[in-house]
Amino acid sequence: MAERFASLVLPTPVDQEFDYIIPEPFIGHVARGVRATVEFGKRKLTGFVVGVKDSSPLGAGKLKPLLDLPDDGPLADEGTLKLTQWIAEYYACSWGEALEAAIPAVIRRKRAVRAVNILRLGKSRTDCAHQARWLEDKGKKANSPYHKQAKVLRTLLTFHDKDFRPSELAEQLGFSEAPIATLIKQGWLSIEKIPIEDFDGVNAAEAPDEIPDLTVEQERAVNAIAPSIERDEYKTFLLYGVTGSGKTEVYLRALKHVLELGKGGIVLVPEISLAPQTVRRFSARLGGVTGIAVLHSAMTDADRRREWKRIVSGEARVVIGPRSAVFAPVRDLGLVIVDEEHEPSYKQDNTPRYHARDAAVMRCFQQNAVCLLGSATPSLESASNAVNKRYTLLELTKRVAERPLPRVTVVDMKDECRAQRRFTFFSNALTQAVSDAVKAKEQAILFLNRRGYSTFFQCDTCREVLMCENCDVPMSLHKSYGQCICHYCLETKPTPRICPKCMKGAMQSKGAGTEFIEEEIKARFADARVARMDSDVMKSREDYEELLDRFRAGEIDVLVGTQMIAKGLDFPRVTVVGVIHADLSLYLADFRAHERTFQLLTQVSGRAGRGTLKGRVFVQTFAPEHPCIQAAQAQDYWAFYKHEISQRKIAAYPPFVRLINVGIEARDPRRGQEMARKIRADLDDLKKLEAGVIVDILGPSAAPIARLRGRHRQQVLVKVRDHKAIGVVSARIRKWGKGGDAQRIVIDVDPYSLL
Ligand SMILES: [Zn+2]
Ligand SMILES: [Zn+2]
Questions:
Q1: 407-450+513-646 shares the fold of 220-388
Q2: Is the ipTM of this complex over 0.90?
Q3: Which ligand is nearest to the CA of 488?
């Protein structure tokens, strides 16, 4: 008798297939990709069937039966099974965990959620503040439940204008939801159910845009991609195009071609740029040909489920979405586009820690589709793949409509401070340019990649810096909250006057964030309309879109912001871009510090002069000679690439090796160090055993942020030869398990950063 046993993968870290008996009534309904509920230990879990067979090595006597088949048919198709299997092997998680990430929870759940739970204070602010003080007195130790409850109350009192979901707040504060539950039970907190707004859907009746003529370079790119699309062959293209060169037009033409051949496509975009105008632009051009589905995290369950069904049924053949849309079950996939392929948001920072760009390349390889990566500042990995002919390079070196690139001026702030006889954040050149732009009714963007008012407090006598109690991070002042805040764990403290260490010196605020720049600009240009865009003021997608609408309508003269403003904004009246402090990310203890700095400078410069008006960019720096700054001034990507790739080669960093970062986090620093040393010794053994697989092992050493949310962080960095070596090494590390609450082991393959 055939098909008596099913192999399942389950949503647990245990990377193994488990056999179960298929009971009589289920025979004929169990197949690969079907979900089944089973008993696993003492729990009931729902996993995916990955195989059906007529015998099991364990024999029927020892096996349990499948308990339930919750769905009508398979939820994962062959393509999804194959891709998630690769993700599990490569990114060191279980196949079951990878499938959980690929199939949205809403598709797996039976009931749709139409509201989100938001935490509110259950009593008056005064009462809650009183209770917080009482709890603080009662629980002095950081791991006492009173201390944790006090922290929850304090956070809600400080960030009174923010909406926290219970799970989100617990994660941010670094503990379980138990203290929140207690406070709710005691009435100090309450839950407000906020209904999620319905997604408008994509309006296919949108009037089509005028179809622009292609530039010579655009046409060359479109023609280069076409044959691969027609032949159903796997190929990855890197479309390197300077800002404003019309990469989107190339995407649209390639997609249209794919649709005309009856195939489907996926467009991956960084989360923040998934603004309605992106979607509108695609639907205006392609809406006549097919339905377009949109997937993103802010949609209701009902909307997501509807979009998913439209994709599965083939009604929508184009899917636009962030990272997770790489798993969209598009039929007859012909093309995956990864816009802004260098963006860090494509790397997921929890299990499975996959990179959506690399998953897209793998999916295209597995399904004979074309992968099109686009960027004005490609990642070193993608650029080197293009240079080495693994990817095909397509270049757009000129802006559309023969518009010039903006003129970039590097301002040496050492000279500037000397000339102005004081420390300053505003050079005369930038001040003048902003003033000119405001007078001419043009617009300016000022970029500083740091939130808050000041960045740290320092004693003027003993030099003590005010640090967070839970993290090795200085506290920064946020005037709008009237508090000092740790950006990592949301710890808050009142602004200090007297030094807590020497009790003599005065604490002075140092450094500047966007809040300070906004205030300064308002003071300097009384008649300018100034707005700020950073995550302190932008609480939702609606805030973001509303501000952009106002900027577009000309209701704002100067926009101050963090990296939120560096991406994709296309406003023709922006003629001045000022980078307040270009060196901010230059000296971070991270192998991508230069790459990230160059990318940010180039992207933010690219916001200037996109219309008929010419653009000017001022890059303020204390390191004007730095190759990174020089290349950004020349807007010369390949000059940057040549310099940086030689540095990476000398230091043996990607793309010359692959990295596996093993993070060991422990509440007790000694236990963490001990565990890290053991893992290192084990890897040394492996290195001897498998010659040439491991290139180098660094550490254990304290992570650049040595303590975060009360956990001490050690890391062991493994450099391996190539992608094939990854599996061998991570399998070895996984034997150590994932740890528990006291200590955690995190394996990050191809980490974006080491901070
Ligand atoms: Zn002091
Ligand atoms: Zn902190």
A1: yes
A2: yes
A3: 2
Are the CB atoms for 329 and 83 separated by under 8 Å?
no
What are 394-441's pLDDT values in tens digits? 999 999 888 888 999 999 999 999 999 888 899 999 999 999 999 999
DSSP-assigned letters across all residues of 200-230: ----TTSPPPP-PPPPHHHHHHHHHHHHHHH
User: What's the CA-to-centroid distance between 541 and ligand 1, angstroms?
Assistant: 43
CATH H superfamily, domain 5-108: PriA, 3(prime) DNA-binding domain (3.40.1440.60)
Burial 662-688 (b: 16+ CB within 10 A, else e): bbbbbeeeeebbbbbeebbeebeebbe
Q: What is the pLDDT of residues 189-216, one digit of tens each?
A: 998 887 765 555 554 445 556 788 999 9
Give 407-450+513-646's CATH code, choosing from 1.10.1040.10, 3.10.20.310, 3.40.50.300, 3.40.980.10: 3.40.50.300
CB contact at 8 A, 567 and 603: yes
Kindly report the average pLDDT of the chain as a whole number: 89
Smallest-distance ligand from the CA of 486: 2
Task: Give the percent of the chain with pLDDT over 70.
Answer: 95
Residues 354-392: tens digit of each pLDDT: 999 999 999 999 999 999 999 999 999 999 999 999 999
CATH topology classification for 658-749: Alpha-Beta Plaits (3.30.70)
Where in the chain are the domains?
Answer: 5-108, 115-195, 220-388, 407-450+513-646, 454-511, 658-749
Give 158 Cα–ligand 2 centroid separation in angstroms. 15
474 CA to middle of ligand 1, Å? 15
220-388 placed in CATH 3.90.1150.10: no
Cα(589) to centroid of ligand 2, in Å?
19
Whether the predicted pLDDT of 482 surpasses 70:
yes
